[in-house]
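Quick one, tokens below. Sequence please?
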């Protein structure tokens, strides 16, 4: 999506060899009108798929998921990162290795909000090693729900998650696919 690539070129900041900061519009400060354009694009790409629920993971996926959900007119369910391992109540749970924090935590959703009737679209801000997406897919599978696919704002395609999960048959639509990046030259896209 050219609009997104241009915005990343203008406002994105590369940190080290593999972290892209887009804090000014996507996942810290949020440019709501701009994210509306991204949400519309997801809606077009998954049109006619019968999506009944959007699933994401706290915290940085929630903004784009909510804005996207307005176009689908379906609820958003966000998986919570369980800090305590003291899981209360009736929940689906899955372990996720964090890209940004380098540790493993459990993500949980309440069973009452994810059922076998649901047709689920996963939305997230980034796809890197694919651990977050994998964990979310497991929640969908455990609920017996139908996975429609995943809409990702920025896929760092030089990291292995996207290829691995596509090979497993998951439909992944990324609005920008980063081929390579570094602090001097910035970001190159496919
Ligand atoms: P994965 O599980 O695919 O390795 O990483 C995905 C998660 O890590 C996303 O939910 C996102 O929050 C975070 N993440 C991964 N790479 C980046 C990055 O380059 N920049 C930012 N801001 N977050 C990232």
């Amino acid at each position: 999506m050219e609009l997104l690539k241009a915005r990343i070129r203008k406002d994105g900041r590369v940190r080290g060899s593999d972290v892209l900061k887009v804090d000014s519009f996507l996942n810290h400060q949020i440019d709501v009108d701009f994210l509306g354009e991204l949400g519309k694009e997801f809606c077009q790409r998954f049109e006619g798929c019968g999506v009944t629920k959007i699933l994401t993971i706290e915290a940085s996926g929630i903004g784009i998921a909510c804005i996207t959900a307005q176009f689908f007119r379906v609820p958003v369910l966000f998986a919570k990162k369980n800090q305590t391992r003291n899981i209360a109540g009736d929940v689906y749970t899955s372990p996720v290795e964090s890209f940004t924090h380098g540790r493993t935590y459990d993500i949980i959703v309440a069973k009452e909000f994810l059922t076998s009737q649901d047709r689920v679209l996963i939305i997230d801000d980034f796809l890197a090693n694919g651990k977050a997406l994998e964990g979310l897919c497991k929640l969908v599978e455990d609920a017996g729900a139908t996975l429609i696919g995943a809409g990702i704002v920025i896929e760092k395609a030089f990291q292995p998650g996207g290829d691995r999960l596509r090979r497993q048959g998951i439909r992944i639509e990324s609005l920008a696919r980063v081929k390579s990046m570094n602090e001097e030259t910035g970001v190159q896209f496919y």
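The helical segments are 2-11, 32-45, 62-72, 131-143, 161-167. The mean pLDDT is 95.
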